[in-house]
Amino acid sequence: PNPFYSTIIITTLKGGGLAQLFNVLGEKVYSMQLIKNEQEIDLADLPKGIYFMQVKTDDGVVAQKIIKQ
Questions:
Q1: Are 66 and 8 in contact (CB under 8 A)?
Q2: Contact 56, 35 (CB under 8 A)
Q3: Does 13 have pLDDT greater than 90?
């Protein structure tokens, strides 16, 4: 869901890849190796605000703005 409160779910076509979360200043605040094609990530400890999620897989790179409430 976007906005989210505590967790997000990342779905890829194939398992594997790298998920990185950046704040509005471009600082990396979270990074996780993806091992399944659907993975839940707990981000409850992050402060409220706007973030940018970048997911890199063998198929390419996808970036999306997400909002933590």
A1: yes
A2: no
A3: no
Give the residue from 12, 3, 9 showing the smallest Cα distance to 51. 3
* Distance from the Cα of residue 26 to its chain's centroid: 14
pLDDT of residue 54: 97
Pairing of strands 7-11, 28-34: unpaired
pLDDT digits (tens, 9 = 90+) for 42-67: 999 999 999 999 999 988 999 999 99
Contact 68, 30 (CB under 8 A): no
Tokens of 34: 């993806």
Distance CA 55, CA 45 (A): 20
Return the pLDDT at 14.
84
CB 6 within 8 A of CB 42: yes
Q: Which of 1, 12, 11, 8 is nearest to 30 (CA)?
A: 8
